[in-house]
Amino acid sequence: MTNLVLYRKYRPQRFEEVIGQEHVVQTLTNSIKGNNIGHAYLFSGPKGSGKTTIARLFAKAINCQNKKEGQFEPCDKCGSCLEIMGSKSMDLIEIDAASHTGVDDIRELIEGIKFSPVKSKYKIFIIDECHQLSKSASNALLKTLEEPPAHAIFLLATTESHKMLATILSRCQKFDFKRLQVPEIIKKLEFISKKENVKFDDSALSLIALNARGSFRDAESLLDQCLSFADGGSLIKTEDIKELLGIVEVSEISKFVDFLVAKNAKDAILFLNSIIDNGVDLQEFTKTLVFYLRQQLLLKINPNFLNLQNSGLANSDLEKMKQQTESLTQKDLQNMLELFIDAENKIKYSAVAQLPLELAIINITNQE
Ligand SMILES: Nc1ncnc2c1ncn2[C@@H]1O[C@H](COP(=O)(O)OP(=O)(O)O)[C@@H](O)[C@H]1O
Ligand SMILES: [Mg+2]
Ligand SMILES: [Zn+2]
């Protein structure tokens, strides 16, 4: 069970394995079936939602040498499929605009699209985090998109499409990837743990899914940590996961917010220090707290903002949150959020890690 790296091992290799993103999958597979492939696609959405996965899958499918008329799944056996799966294809070029520093390299690469594919039907460029392309690289890309060679396909992926050139956007078919829902993440975690032959408590997988906040990648690396902890066969309990990952439970956050509502600085600070002693990670605690307060703010603005499925909260937690929100004004919540977001940023640099949080507590409980 060593060296798992689940997110590589379980990256979907066929469209049927992709969870969620139905609208994207359907449009792409239809265009493969109908042999109606565009020159530029933009995949936009949160991290870990499947942008890179689907880009590679699409590339593999359209260059597959065994694909028959009307089919869309890649065969995974032909030379092209095997090369793509082994990251060895000369006709699939992947560029990470975020880590690539040599600006001119990228421009040259993009200009290299002029040359015909080596072995396959298409020459495909996947450009990740493409909102980070330099100005000159963006312009080179734009020029190519204005008159793309027949064999060229660009698959652009970004978490921040609003930062991209409007002229580039207007030349792409745009696909919005959705943040994944907790039940979708649980489904995949169940699949992986079955394959890996590890058993989990009922609520253990939902705890992991909740903490992944919509990212499959995060869910899979949390699961990775749990699997190496379990070391084969045994049952993983919710308690283990909490301890192992330093995860904070909603009920704990809720108790903490109770102290803030009661303007009880002493117990709030004692509580904070006791959970630190129990091994809860401070960054994690603050992140979950901010997440919780934001949900309260949304509730305050409009009770319909939070539906159960999206909130990822258990019924009882949501009820408790609603009650608690009654005794807070919108201004209170806004203020608390600002103070804790500020504290979160300061934790890293503080000599006493919990001090920024303690100051925020005092600030909140001192207010009239
Ligand atoms: N829609 C999905 N269905 C199944 N697994 C997914 C999905 N999206 C992401 N994953 C899993 O998460 C990992 C990271 O996904 P990736 O495609 O790299 O995300 P992104 O490029 O959007 O940040 C993949 O290797 C895969 O295991
Ligand atoms: Mg990616
Ligand atoms: Zn193939």
Structure description:
The protein is α/β, with parallel strands linked by helices. It has 18 helices and seven strands. Helix 9 packs parallel to helix 11 and helix 12 (250-261) packs antiparallel against helix 13 (265-277). The protein is elongated.
State the major sheet.
5 strands, parallel
Helix percentage: 40-55%
Task: Going across the biggest sheet, name each strand in turn.
Answer: 2-3-4-1-5
Strand elements, count: 7
Count of discrete domains: 3
CATH structural class of the largest domain: Alpha Beta
- CATH architecture annotation of the largest domain: 3-Layer(aba) Sandwich
CATH superfamily membership of the largest domain: P-loop containing nucleotide triphosphate hydrolases
Distance between the termini: 56 Å
Helix-strand category: alpha/beta
CATH topology (level 3) name of the largest domain: Rossmann fold
What general form does the structure show? elongated
Number of helices: 18
Mean pLDDT: 89
Q: What is the element layout, followed by pairings?
A:
Elements: H1 6-9, H2 22-33, E1 40-44, H3 51-63, H4 79-85, E2 92-96, H5 103-111, E3 123-128, H6 135-146, E4 152-158, H7 166-169, E5 173-176, H8 182-195, E6 199-200, H9 202-211, H10 216-230, E7 235-236, H11 238-245, H12 250-261, H13 265-277, H14 282-301, H15 308-311, H16 315-326, H17 330-347, H18 355-366
Parallel strand pairs: 1-4, 1-5, 2-3, 3-4, 6-7
Helix pairs in contact: 2-3, 3-4, 5-6, 8-9, 9-10, 9-11, 10-11, 12-13, 12-16, 13-18, 14-16, 14-17, 17-18
The chain binds adenosine-5'-diphosphate, magnesium ion and zinc ion.
